[in-house]
Amino acid sequence: MTYTGRTLGIGLMNGKPFAFYLLCSRSFPNRKAVIKGNAAYIINQTETDNPYVSYPVVRTNEMYAVVTNGLHTDFISQALVWEKPRKALVHVLDAMDYERDAYNTPRIAGIIERGSERGWLGFAGRDEFWVRSLRLKEGKAFVTATYNVDGFVELGLNGFSSAGELALEVLKLPLEHKVMAFGVTEAENRWAVEMSGRPF
């Protein structure tokens, strides 16, 4: 199996956009998830001075859902108030750049739009920076990760009918050190956000 670290994807199922986030961690596997209002958070449970291991992972508004591996979740969501998704990703990822930790961890981000078959991915690494606007494909996900994924890849997913089922499907991916997964799906008049993972 491959270790991809923080992993996220955007796609289309039954004509509706979805997004997911998968936390794989070797150094800090003891985390918990908190879903509150229009946001979801990953909270570290191990004592550390590392500022990057607790963060908002999902933030939604009326039109968009944002999924990332860090504090840039909220900044991208705020930028979407006045900017289109591509520009929001470019501006925020360029400003915040990669994480200044021992691994120079890249910042990754995904955006989906209500009622749309278009999505956006972004990546800010030490030696690589890109933002892509993508036409989503039915039953597929475009996936990027902090490690061991070259750009982004296309994956097929089994059918699901809820954000929780999506999170369970993501946990079945053959990746190392999986801790928890979040699913984001378009529901009636809102975004649904659910989490699945090992109990703490």
Task: Give the helices and strands, then pairings.
Elements: E1 6-13, E2 16-24, E3 31-36, E4 39-44, E5 55-60, E6 64-68, H1 72-79, H2 85-96, E7 107-113, E8 118-124, E9 129-135, E10 140-145, E11 153-156, H3 163-171, E12 178-187, E13 190-197
Antiparallel strand pairs: 1-2, 1-10, 2-12, 3-4, 4-5, 5-6, 6-7, 7-8, 8-9, 10-11, 12-13
Description:
This protein is mainly beta and 200 residues long. 14% of the residues lie in helices and 44% in strands. The protein has helices spanning 72-79, 85-96, 163-171, and strands spanning 6-13, 16-24, 31-36, 39-44, 55-60, 64-68, 107-113, 118-124, 129-135, 140-145, 153-156, 178-187, 190-197. Strands 3-4-5-6-7-8-9 form a 7-stranded antiparallel β-sheet, covered by helices on one side. Strands 11-10-1-2-12-13 form a 6-stranded antiparallel β-sheet. The two termini are 24 Å apart. The mean pLDDT is 95.
Mean pLDDT: 95
Number of strands: 13
- Span between termini: 24 Å
Radius of gyration: 15 Å
Strand content: 35-45%
Count every helix, treating DSSP H or I runs of 4 or more residues as helices. 3
Helical content band? 10-25%
Give a quick account of the main beta sheet: strands, pairing sense, barrel closure.
7 strands, antiparallel
What structural class do you assign from the helix and strand content? Answer: mainly beta
Shape: globular
Q: Topology as H/E string?
A: EEEEEEHHEEEEEHEE
Strand order of the largest sheet: 3-4-5-6-7-8-9
The residue ranges in which pLDDT falls below 50 over 5 or more consecutive positions are none
